[in-house]
Amino acid sequence: MKSTLTTILVILVLASLLSKQTPFFSETVVKAQPPAQVSDEPLSRQIDRFLESEVERGKHRDRPERPDREREHMRHHSPEDRPGEPRHPDHREHERRLDEQRHRIQKMHVAAEHLQDAGLPELAHQVHREAEEQHQRLQQHLEHRHHPDHGPHHEVRESLQQLRNEVNELKREVHELRMILKERIPNSAR
Predict the structure, then answer these.
(1) Residue 181 belongs to a domain
(2) 134-158: burial string, b at 16+ Cβ within 10 Å, e else
(3) 8 Å CB contact between 144 and 107
(4) What is the distance between the alpha carbons of residues 148 and 152, in angstroms, rounded to a whole number?
(5) Quick one: which of 11, 33, 67, 130 has the most CB atoms within 10 Å?
(6) Is the pTM of this model over 0.90?
(7) From the CB of residue 170, how many other CB atoms can be counted at a distance below 10 Å?
(8) % the chain with pLDDT above 70
(9) Maximal C-alpha separation, the chain
(10) Count of domains forming the chain
């Protein structure tokens, strides 16, 4: 008896829903967006927006497999491999942020390659350089995190870090000088 009443009630509800105009239309209305306008926005800002959107898209996609070097680094520095070091939520959050930073750096290199392919070598070089600088900062952060500051080794590490910074600065200057020379040599040959 109950099942009969329930069936009748379901049929009546469905009939009343179908007799009214419901949102279940057989045709879907699509509103097309107008074609994209050429903006007066500077190219560097457009690239920044592109990189931000790539990062957002990357959060929703499966992450690509890490290169061997990063996998090896993570294996040696993962909390499971370090006895006596507890795994805290703060530590996991920190590791997640480091992974996001690595992913951003990877996306910057990909974007720079796309810029190179699009015929914008100067901008591509600038994006590559920024990605390398971020990678170096990340490496420095990891080194400081895994090596506590104590004893005479701290002074050696500071000196070594200072030398590394100077070498990186010299590399940047040499690269800039090469770019300037490349620009001037074709101009003087004409």
Answers:
(1) no
(2) ebeeeeeeeeeeeeeeeeeeeeeee
(3) no
(4) 12
(5) 130
(6) no
(7) 10
(8) 62
(9) 99
(10) 1
